[in-house]
């Protein structure tokens, strides 16, 4: 990254966010919530692919959210249209759907989609998620337990997180990570030893990142809110990726690591862990 410290996907201080959804009410709810959370954003609503094309013909946008299903297509088609538009190759495109997790697990999203969001989390959480892309704000002091056996990769990734004021404890094996987590079992204050677990899949030692994930969700009994887990993988096998998500990974970070996406995903999971459970969101 040329700027080093500047992780914003959007250069403008007044980002143009395109919200694509067949429901006028949903577009208004997302737009109103986003304007409260990112007051300098210009929100452009589109009901279908035809309107998306018309907006793009008039100028570039800085970020796109789209429903998975639309009257004349789907979110994948929106992503493709945006990518094909001049100057839109690197715009973040977020699919918003009640079936997002299922689509993620079955790896049906195309490479044109930057990220996904499960709308059951609520529009307030979506606005926070979008803000993470356009105006990422550090969560000072957030503790990350980071498992990576490559010193070179670990040094670079650790710096990415520490630039956002996170405290990173780096260990080289799943065994070391489990030893650290065991120290916090049964604490009266509920502290589990870190706020976020970031782990590679393939590690030296007997246990893999996959095994570590299974222990955290199984033996420790920590849910996705109690201890968010981001899994880093260079494996492009969709079945293997889906397996990690089904077994309890909050999200995946594909290698080679792209700093903006790593930080956005980490900050989102940290914020989400502090929010009420989905049933209490205003939708």
Number of structural domains: 2
Alpha plus pi helix count? 10
Q: Segments where pLDDT lies below 50 for 5+ residues?
A: 1-11, 278-283
Q: Which class of secondary structure composition applies to the elements?
A: alpha/beta
Largest sheet: 5 strands, parallel
CATH superfamily of the largest domain: Response regulator
Cα-atom radius of gyration:
19 Å
**Terminal Cα separation, in Å?**
37 Å
CATH class of the largest domain: Alpha Beta
Q: What does the average pLDDT come to?
A: 85
Secondary-structure element sequence? Answer: EHEHEEEHEHEHEHEHEHEHEH
Find the count of extended strands (DSSP E, 2+ residues). 12
CATH architecture type of the largest domain: 3-Layer(aba) Sandwich
The largest beta-sheet arranges its strands as 2-1-3-6-7
Strand residue content: 15-25%
- Per CATH, what is the topology of the largest domain? Rossmann fold
Estimated helix fraction = 25-40%
Give the overall form. elongated
Can you give me a brief rundown of this structure?
With about 280 residues, this protein is of the alpha/beta class. It contains ten helices and twelve strands.
């Amino acid at each position: 990254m040329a700027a080093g410290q500047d992780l914003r996907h959007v250069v403008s201080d007044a980002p143009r966010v395109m919200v694509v959804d067949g429901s006028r009410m949903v577009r208004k709810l997302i737009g109103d919530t986003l304007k409260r959370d990112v007051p300098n954003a210009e929100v452009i609503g589109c009901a279908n692919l035809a309107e998306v094309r018309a907006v793009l013909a008039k100028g570039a946008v800085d970020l796109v959210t789209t429903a998975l299903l639309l009257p004349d297509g789907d979110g994948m088609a929106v992503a493709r249209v945006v990518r094909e538009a001049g100057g839109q190759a690197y715009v973040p495109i977020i699919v918003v759907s009640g079936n997002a997790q299922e689509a993620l697990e079955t790896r049906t999203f195309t490479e044109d989609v930057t990220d996904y969001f499960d709308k059951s989390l609520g529009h307030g959480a979506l606005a926070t998620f979008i803000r993470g892309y356009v105006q990422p704000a550090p969560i000072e002091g957030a503790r990350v337990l980071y498992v990576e056996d490559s010193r070179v990769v670990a040094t670079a990734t650790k710096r990415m997180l520490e630039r956002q004021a996170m405290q990173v404890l780096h260990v080289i094996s799943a065994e070391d990570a489990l030893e650290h987590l065991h120290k916090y079992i049964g604490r009266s204050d509920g502290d589990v030893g870190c706020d976020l677990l970031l782990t590679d899949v393939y590690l030296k030692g007997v246990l893999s990142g996959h095994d570590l994930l299974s222990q955290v969700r199984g033996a420790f009994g920590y849910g996705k809110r109690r201890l968010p887990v981001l899994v880093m993988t260079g494996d492009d096998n969709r079945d293997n990726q889906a397996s990690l998500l089904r077994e309890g990974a909050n999200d995946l970070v594909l290698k080679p690591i792209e700093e903006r996406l790593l930080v956005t995903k980490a900050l989102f999971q940290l914020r989400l862990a502090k929010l009420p459970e989905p049933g209490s969101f205003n939708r």
